[in-house]
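This is your field. Have a critical look at both lines of this record:
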Amino acid sequence: MSTSHHPDRRRHRRLELALPVRFSSRAPGGRGRHGQGFTTDISSGGLRFETEQAEPPQPHSDVAVYITIPRHAESRKSAVFISGNATVLRCTPLEPATRHHTGAKWAVAARFEAHSDISLPIVEDFTPGIG
């Protein structure tokens, strides 16, 4: 729930879900970066995820995301793997690196490309208790 006094201008409904995510990215003219983390929310238009990678994806870089929807004990369905291509909008530090903790924690927001296969009905169908 947002505490902002600004109206929500999102075009897509968001689901607040912590799902395992792997990513690979390449900044324009840069080298590739790979990592993992957990989604904090996801929609048909994009996602936000957190990662503890030393070098997170940079804004304007292309990122491929691979999301796992784990199998739940009460479900007969197997785990589902969905993927999509996105563009990183912003990368915000959540925790800086310190002397005792070498990795920083980052929040990454990305917008899915038009031809992405990410679909909220698929996510909702395989995630009990939402929708």
